[in-house]
Design goal:
Length: about 700
């Protein structure tokens, strides 16, 4: 068989292209990675690089393909096959999308890959089955090794579970192929088969569990290690057809026991039922593990006279595992579809694990070999295949609006980042031909060459405040995303650009606005901005206390200025105005809102400058008119301010020319300061005059 190396395949980002600072992809837990029609997948990080291990094998055809490893570079946007480099060769895969476990199986500090392979329906007319595969990790890649009892026997390995059931620090393995077998790890990747006490055997029925004097078949399509009793060790859930049992470890030997009433999964007499999967969710209230069972069955319809595969979902409360009831909720009737192989992920980052499904229908292969099942008629919207946890391990469909082409695709998680609140998803972008045998025959394969982002906000309801007349900028997501305004404000205006909302406040009060994320991939629900528009403090007034002290009308929050410049450290209600010049004050309240600047007050009334032949104000004393004269260095215009004997500015006149007269007939008799300020360069002159 020739080894085929696939070249570079360009991928594009519809929303998010992470740069050089992109974090490494790290799987936080082993997952059953059955994610799409023709693909199995495992995404993992090794030596600072991101990899995708996948298969391209059909479940119903005789074609054979191989485990293939691709390096994914999210920041530059391409994938490159590195199978020979990472695995040391090309090894054939049996069944469709076998589950992968990425764990340190042999406790050497390097993660390994264990693959449970149930084989194909049709493979040279052999019974359905295949060999499990173990790739031992080393510092550079992996090497295929055999594990006695685990990888060297050909069986129908449909059921599987991997966990440290005895809490001794190593990974143990269980699988089922007509009977359930459990292996204990000695800490070095060497496994010992364990015994089950209450087994019986007959030539016709094979091995069965004997529980309460009644026999139950051993065969199961799904297994799960989970703690459901009072001891520390994990039990093994075995959902046998319509009746779940569990194996309990008692003095080193497993004992089969019933869960729930007789046949809790049976929904129709005589209809085939298979216990396909068991999922566990910790209940935040009870701190117990609630269980969700996926049961496969068949339903006869006009288009499926032989029976259409459907999924039935049941739940048991962790406080009483004997009570098992069908799923109830505001989502699609699961008995009408075949939603399978859910991934557990907190997809909306609310702290509760959600479910993300793929959808499968054997009838799609009537259109085989290429892709006609993506016509949308046999696939439900992606929204219906994402079930959100309400916090009590009950589920509802998400409210995300996905693009039409997104609804017709099945997604693989590339990365879920709980800190930045986004999911990267890899999806079908194009159909390519892959050689499959020595004669270079090809088959069409939907290859995943596009990365999309599903992004959530920092907060679904964000409370912010702003002072009247001001504005703020707010980035609702941690990563770049386009925004659309759903509801604008009444007290101000909101504008949106790439991950940036700008709000300008015009009036005081409570304003509620909403926005959503909108990209070529999805349109989110509306998220709220609750904005409190605060009033600004009143403009402070300055009074004089004695000959040099100035006093603000505000007891707190003051900042004093001299000639428009902040006076460092002068934040009290009073200031000793010993410097010659114009004083003002501004107030900041406890909310950070700032008043307008106060009226100007001249600080040191006795500090004046003598008139000169270049700068002068006359006559002195004056009656009705004042004539202002200043040198050419002041420019064309000056600003004239007149201060009374308390230092208060009582008259301001702009754009006064040299030798121009100013009317002052309405001023009372007394002493005044006249300050000239050049409007071109800021030169000043202050002169003291009297009015008769």
């Amino acid at each position: 068989m020739k080894k085929i190396i696939v070249g570079l395949l360009l991928i594009s980002y519809s929303v998010l292209g992470q740069g050089k600072g992109e974090k490494k992809i790290v799987l936080e837990r082993p997952i059953n990675a059955n994610t799409t029609y023709e693909f199995g997948d495992l995404h993992f990080e090794k030596n600072g690089k991101n990899y995708w291990l996948t298969t391209f094998t059909s479940i119903t055809g005789p074609e054979v393909d191989y485990y293939r490893v691709f390096e994914i570079k999210q920041d530059s946007g391409y994938v490159k096959e590195v199978t020979a480099q990472m695995l040391g060769g090309y090894y054939p895969v049996g069944g469709i999308n076998p589950p992968y476990y990425y764990e340190d199986i042999d406790n050497d500090g390097i993660k390994d890959i264990l693959i449970i392979d149930h084989g194909k329906e049709e493979a040279d007319k052999q019974p359905w089955g295949d060999y499990n595969v173990f790739f031992k990790g080393n510092k550079d890649g992996f090497v295929k090794k055999e594990i006695p009892f685990i990888t060297n026997e050909r069986q129908y390995y449909h059921a599987h579970a991997v966990a440290d059931f005895d809490l001794d620090g190593d990974i143990d393995v269980a699988y089922g192929y007509g009977s359930t077998v459990i292996f204990s790890n000695n800490g070095k990747g060497e496994f010992t088969k364990m015994n089950v006490s209450n087994l019986t055997y007959s030539e016709f029925m094979g091995y069965q569990y004997l529980i309460n004097n009644q026999k139950y078949n051993q065969g199961s399509f799904g297994l799960k290690f989970v703690n459901i009793d009072s001891d520390k060790e994990l039990e093994l859930i075995v959902p046998i057809s319509d009746q779940p049992v569990y194996l309990d470890l008692v003095n080193g030997v497993w004992e089969a026991k019933l869960i729930g009433s007789n046949k809790p999964f049976q929904w129709k007499e005589g209809v085939h039922i298979g216990g396909e999967q068991v999922l566990s969710f910790e209940n935040p209230t009870t701190k117990k593990n609630d269980l969700v069972y996926r049961i496969a069955s068949q339903k006869v319809t006009p288009n499926h006279p032989g029976g259409k595969w459907i999924s039935l979902y049941f739940k048991s409360d962790g406080t009483d595992y004997s009570k098992i009831s069908p799923f109830k909720g505001n989502f699609i009737d699961t008995a009408t579809v075949y939603f399978i192989d859910p991934k557990i992920s907190d997809i909306n980052f609310d702290g509760y694990d959600d479910l993300v499904f793929k959808e499968f229908d054997y009838t799609m292969y009537q259109n085989y070999p290429c892709c006609k099942y993506y016509n949308g008629s046999q696939l439900h919207a992606l929204n219906y295949r994402i079930w959100l946890n309400n916090g009590n391990n009950d589920f509802i469909p998400s409210t995300i609006k996905f693009a039409d082409d997104a609804n017709k695709s099945v997604y693989l998680f590339v990365k879920s980042d709980s800190k930045l609140k986004y999911n990267l998803l890899l999806r079908t972008s194009q159909v390519i031909n892959f050689p499959i045998d020595k004669d270079y025959k090809t088959k069409n394969v939907d290859f995943y060459t596009k990365i999309d982002s599903l992004i959530y906000p920092k907060a679904a309801k964000q409370k912010l405040s702003v002072c009247k007349g001001n504005s703020f900028k707010y980035s609702p997501a941690y990563v770049p995303v386009d925004l659309a305004i759903s509801k604008n404000g009444k007290l101000g205006s909101l504008t949106a650009s790439n991950n940036l909302l700008t709000y300008s406040a015009n009036a005081v009060g409570q304003d509620t606005l909403s926005y959503r994320f909108k990209t070529s991939f999805f349109e989110s629900q509306d998220y709220e901005l609750n904005i409190q528009v605060l009033d600004n403090p009143a403009i402070p007034a300055i009074s004089r206390e004695g000959s040099t002290n100035l006093v603000s009308s505000s007891a707190t929050g003051n900042q004093w200025y001299l000639n428009g410049n902040k006076i460092a450290g002068e934040i009290g209600q009073k200031i000793n105005a010993t410097a010659n010049g114009v004083y003002t004050v501004q107030v900041t309240d406890s909310n950070g809102c700032i008043s307008a600047i106060s009226k100007e007050t001249y600080g040191l009334i006795t500090a004046t400058e003598e008139a000169s032949h270049e700068s002068n104000v006359y006559p002195n004393p004056f009656k009705e008119q004042l004539i202002v004269e200043f040198p050419n260095s002041f420019g064309i215009y000056s600003q004239i301010k007149i201060f009374d004997n308390r230092g208060a500015c009582i008259l301001t006149q702009e754009q006064v020319k040299s030798k121009e007269s100013i009317y002052v007939g309405n001023l009372a008799s007394g002493t005044y300061l006249i300050k000239m300020t050049s409007e071109s360069n800021g030169l000043t002159k202050t002169i003291k005059l009297s009015k008769e």
